């Protein structure tokens, strides 16, 4: 049991360490500014870096391009596209609204990429890994069935499932923390998503279907989350994060996992080894039929009724074409027009991901073994990893000035693909098929990291264009984008009759995001000579954000037991009104309608 928690933390540490490698090339001790020191109309000097990039809009439009290209603060670290140079140099000033519109559409598409990658590729491979490591039947089976939902069920909700569901949030936080100029996005997104999920999503569940909350899991998760928020508040107050504190964040999450495992073990001992009906405080579990209905079927899985009576051998070309089809035509005909429209936007993303990310499915007889496609993955997945690592810097490196690294990776991958294709068959997966789950895990993680990097860069660009702080962008756009998947999935579960399960997800799933996101993000910025990261909350908005999250948790912690855990529409309406009031205060603070002269 403890292996699950340890492995999830180790995986997060090692993976994120690879993804932001060499991010410590920045000056040691550079403060991570949680809100830019200049608000509209204020002083535009940045500590030690000359003019702030926000100054570009205050200059004549003819000087925009020269200012962006000559100012070091306008350089975007990482990513494949230079959005600042694009909007201020490629587009003429009169077409600035068009550029902003295109950037907004690309921002929405990046959120789609994050969601599809995490749901269809990242989580299934995590499920396959847990099965191959023989962690637990719940981890191996329930993880695959519920990976789209941020559950806080025993074990799989706090380890692999939390890592899978929180991947976009944590990767966005790590990428944002890697640059002092975008650290405010990380704090704003983590705190902003916390406020949004614990108020709007939780309140929406109570409005959709009044229910009785699971008392013990709710109290446990809220207490741990309040401790995490309090620790972050103290770190912001003292203005620095030490090595011990960063490790303490990760240790607190490990302790949370241990607590869940221990409570689950004690509860099972009390009710016996058999699976008894869930108690009044325990989240109800969907049946197997409901799980299959909620998860749907893939394009190649049509159920028993569509299988041929006599076995037939399919050609490799037919297997490859069927495996690369992201559409289930039977499902397409049954769905409404808006589902089809959204699917059209998802198809290009799913097709590219199918080409580059292998998926091992433990629930299928053949483990989703597609011989020609998996052999192609041996070539495309390593190429993807090397081309997305540090935005392709390592891939373009010339070995002895002659042969590029990507060429060597392509050569080795081609040889291995040919060997695997010759030594395997279409009907039966090889004994080493589990290796493809680890390869798919790494490839999907690289996709998420690349999309998160572009996401952070485009949000910073929009902040420069509209002269908005990183904190307000984090608590609005980034927090909403990362939470939209949880919102739809939790509300869907509530409508289907599982409101307690969805409500538990609101308070348990985001514990992983704040503890691992802040702890890991700061830990990766520390060097051997500088074992502390300075955090400078220069804006009142940061304190409002932290206080609003803490107050919402205290409200739920007091009001839910006061109602005997009977949550109705009045509770949901109060939470949603609270979020609207918080959002109004945050925006008024950003535009200096509300301000304190001492801050």
UniProtKB/TrEMBL annotation:
Residue span, Sodium/calcium exchanger membrane region domain: 104-261, 437-587
Any one of the GO BP annotations: calcium export from the mitochondrion
Recorded GO CC terms: mitochondrial inner membrane
Signal peptide (UniProt feature, chain positions): 1-27
Keywords (A to Z) from UniProt: Antiport, Calcium, Calcium transport, Glycoprotein, Ion transport, Lithium, Membrane, Mitochondrion, Mitochondrion inner membrane, Sensory transduction, Signal, Sodium, Sodium transport, Transmembrane, Transmembrane helix, Transport
Membrane topology field: Multi-pass membrane protein
Pfam families listed in its UniProt record: Na_Ca_ex
Coiled coil start-end: none
Domain of life of the organism encoding this protein: Eukaryota
UniProt catalytic activity: Ca(2+)(in) + 3 Na(+)(out) = Ca(2+)(out) + 3 Na(+)(in)
Keyword presence, Glycosyltransferase: no
GO MF annotation list: calcium:sodium antiporter activity
Residues passing through the membrane, by range: 95-118, 139-163, 183-210, 222-240, 246-266, 337-360, 403-422, 434-452, 501-520, 540-558, 570-589
Region (Disordered): 276-303
Recorded family membership: Belongs to the Ca(2+):cation antiporter (CaCA) (TC 2.A.19) family. SLC24A subfamily.
Annotated protein name in UniProt: Mitochondrial sodium/calcium exchanger protein
Gene source species: Podilymbus podiceps (Pied-billed grebe)
Organism phylogeny: Eukaryota, Metazoa, Chordata, Craniata, Vertebrata
Annotated gene: Slc8b1
């Amino acid at each position: 049991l403890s292996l699950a928690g340890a492995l999830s933390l180790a995986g997060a540490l090692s993976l994120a360490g690879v993804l932001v490698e060499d991010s410590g090339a920045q000056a040691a001790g550079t403060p991570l500014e949680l809100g830019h020191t200049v608000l509209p109309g204020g002083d535009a000097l940045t500590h030690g870096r000359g003019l702030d990039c926000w100054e570009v809009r205050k200059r004549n439009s003819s000087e925009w391009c020269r200012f962006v290209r000559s100012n070091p603060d306008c350089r975007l670290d990482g990513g494949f596209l230079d959005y600042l140079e694009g909007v201020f140099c490629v587009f003429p000033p009169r077409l600035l609204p068009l550029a902003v519109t295109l950037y907004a559409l690309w921002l929405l598409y990046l959120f789609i990429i994050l969601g599809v990658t995490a749901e269809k590729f990242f989580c299934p491979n995590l499920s396959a890994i847990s099965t191959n490591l023989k962690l637990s039947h719940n981890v191996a089976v329930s993880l695959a069935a519920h990976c789209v939902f941020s559950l806080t069920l025993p074990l799989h909700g706090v380890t692999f499932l939390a890592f899978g569901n929180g991947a976009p949030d944590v990767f966005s936080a790590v990428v944002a923390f890697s640059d002092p100029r975008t650290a405010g996005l990380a704090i704003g997104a983590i705190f902003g998503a916390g406020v949004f999920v614990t108020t709007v999503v939780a309140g929406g569940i109570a409005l959709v279907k009044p229910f009785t909350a699971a008392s013990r899991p709710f109290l446990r998760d809220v207490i741990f989350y309040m401790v995490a928020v309090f620790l972050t508040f103290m770190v912001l107050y003292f203005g620095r994060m030490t090595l011990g504190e960063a490790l303490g964040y990760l240790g607190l999450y490990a302790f949370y996992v241990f607590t869940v495992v221990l409570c689950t073990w004690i509860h099972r001992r009390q009710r016996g080894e058999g699976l008894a009906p869930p108690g009044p405080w325990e989240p109800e579990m969907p049946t197997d039929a409901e799980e299959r209905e909620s998860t749907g079927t893939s394009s190649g899985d049509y159920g028993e009724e569509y299988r041929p009576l006599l076995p037939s051998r399919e050609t490799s070309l037919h297997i490859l074409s069927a495996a690369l089809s992201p559409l289930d035509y039977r499902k397409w005909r049954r769905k409404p027009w808006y589902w089809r429209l959204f699917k059209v936007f998802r198809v290009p993303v799913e097709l590219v991901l199918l080409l580059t990310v292998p998926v091992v499915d433990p629930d299928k007889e053949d483990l989703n073994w597609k011989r020609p496609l998996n052999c192609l993955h041996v070539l495309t997945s390593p190429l993807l990893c090397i081309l997305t690592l540090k935005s392709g810097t390592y891939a373009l490196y010339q070995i002895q000035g002659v042969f590029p690294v990507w060429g060597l990776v392509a050569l080795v991958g081609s040889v291995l693909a040919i060997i695997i294709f010759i030594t395997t068959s279409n009907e039966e997966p090889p004994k080493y098929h589990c290796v493809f789950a680890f390869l798919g895990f790494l490839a999907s993680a690289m996709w998420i990291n690349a999309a998160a990097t572009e996401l952070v860069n485009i949000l910073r660009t929009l902040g420069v264009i509209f002269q908005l702080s990183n904190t307000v962008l984090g608590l609005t756009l980034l927090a909403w984008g990362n939470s939209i998947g949880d919102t739809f999935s939790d509300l869907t579960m509530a409508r289907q009759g599982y409101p307690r399960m969805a409500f538990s997800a609101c308070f348990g799933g985001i514990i992983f995001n704040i503890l691992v996101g802040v702890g890991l993000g700061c830990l990766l910025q520390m060097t051997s000579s500088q074992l502390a990261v300075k955090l400078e909350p220069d804006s009142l908005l940061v304190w409002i954000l932290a206080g609003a999250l803490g107050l919402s948790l205290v409200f739920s912690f007091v009001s839910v037991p006061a109602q005997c855990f009977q949550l109705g529409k009045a509770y949901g309406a109060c939470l949603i009104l609270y979020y609207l009031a918080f959002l109004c205060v945050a925006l008024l603070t950003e535009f200096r309608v509300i301000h304190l002269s001492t801050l």
